[in-house]
Amino acid sequence: MSTMTNVHTQQIEVTASGARKFGMRDKIGYLFGDFGNDFFFILVSSFLMVYYTDIFHISAATVGILFLVARIWDAVADVTWGRFIDTRKASKHGKFKPWILRMSFPLVVSGILMFVHIPGMSNGFYLAYAFITYILWGTLYSTVNIPYGSMASFITSDPVERTSLSTFRTMGGLFASLIINVVGPLILFVNNKANSNHFMLGAVLFGILSISCYLACYKLSTERVSTPASQENSANLKVTLKALVKNKPLLSILAISLIFMMLNMLTGAVNVYLFKDYFGSASSLSIVGLVQVVIILIAIPMAKPLVAKFGKKEVAAAGMLLAGIVNLILAFLPGLTAMQFIGISSVATFGFAFFNLVVWAFVTDVIDYHELLTGMREDGTVYSVYSFARKLGQAIAGGIGGFAIAAVGYNSLLPKQTQEALDGIYRLVTLVPGIVFLLIFVMLVFIYPLNKQRTLKLATDLAEKRSNL
């Protein structure tokens, strides 16, 4: 491992000989980056649809179209921004983190604007306002998230240290999830109903916390490495695109991530209706959020030794198999109480938690494979292509979520939903995830090529190629 790191350091130069040594300060700083990202990302994923349907009174199908259009646009913005950053020279503060500082303020402001409700306006006004503010927020999110995700490889060139950054990033998202999913429902809902004033209050509070986290990320993180002068502005788009098409690990993980994000966004949106309408307890969402965070925190220390023994692909596949089986069992257990449902579904959460914990390590592997193919380290471009797939999944899921809620008969104007609609909502969060988790299991086992042995060979081949430069 040390030989590989030394070779990598020859390929990528240190920006400042006097830079302090990598340590806990960088890990905490990187944690704060995803902490800041997810205050609004999780708020939007979990509660924006119910805000639009129950406060703006936009039909669920129309909200689905909005999510579809906006996320497709966001996906294009990701790749455009990633390519833009890869062609820029680093400033004295680094290549990526200055963009986090510059763009975080307008990003947070746009997030708050999404939850502004002006009473007495026409339906057309609310629809137009939703389209403009949501698309604006998504575009600005790309300008912060892409440099943040790409920055890890410039904080340190050591593969082990990068793995620790990935773990701390996951923890940052967990802390945001804990606050949004546990505290959020208590703020946003009044008497089991979405309240516009409380949504605005929540947006402002989360906005203040978000900008504080971005500032902490900027202050605590240090970019130590940079692209050699010989590589600056030499990126060839044609060569890059050819390499991306030949990158089988990238293509397969893109497909898997797209499907996973579709499911994640779908269940995140429908879960609100499940607990609000099916179980009649929106406040139970707080318990769900707490349980999910605790389970993932339990899984975190288990992930590294399991991956070391069996491999990333193998651990992720086993987790997906467990999650699929549990969700299929839930689908055929109607009549459960909210607490019984939460208890059983927590086993599925434990299963797919391992995919979430190792997914950033998958991305590191496919970036390394891209370097093996091209000899170029294009972290921003490759990461943005990966983000493109996730955004596309979110786009499709947003559309499916709205149409699915409408298709099962949900009507925000009814004081109580029909039994047919309630049963449909239950199937959306049990049967559909069960099938999709099993599909991802099959794709990991039979399509994704980098098992433990091949990943080790990739590291050896890349180290050898770097040593010959």
TrEMBL record:
Under the heading InterPro entries, the entry gives: MFS_2 (IPR039672), MFS_dom (IPR020846), MFS_trans_sf (IPR036259), Na/Gal_symport (IPR001927)
Per its UniProt record, what SUPFAM superfamilies does this chain match?
A: MFS general substrate transporter
Stretches assigned to the Major facilitator superfamily (MFS) profile domain: 250-469
Give the residues annotated as coiled coil. none
Q: In terms of one coarse class, where is the protein primarily found?
A: membrane
What GO molecular function annotations does the UniProt record carry, in alphabetical order?
symporter activity
What PROSITE patterns does the record point to?
A: MFS
Q: Does the keyword NAD apply?
A: no
Per the record, its GO cellular-component terms are: plasma membrane
CDD domains annotated for this entry? MFS_MelB_like (cd17332)
- GO biological process entries: carbohydrate transport; sodium ion transport
Per UniProt, the keywords (alphabetical) are: Membrane, Sugar transport, Transmembrane, Transmembrane helix, Transport
Location within or outside the cell: Cell membrane
Q: Which domain of life is it from?
A: Bacteria
The transmembrane residues are: 30-52, 58-79, 99-118, 124-144, 171-190, 196-217, 250-275, 281-303, 315-335, 341-363, 395-413, 425-448
Regarding the membrane, this protein is recorded as: Multi-pass membrane protein
Q: What is this protein called?
A: Sugar transporter
Taxonomic source organism: Paenibacillus pectinilyticus
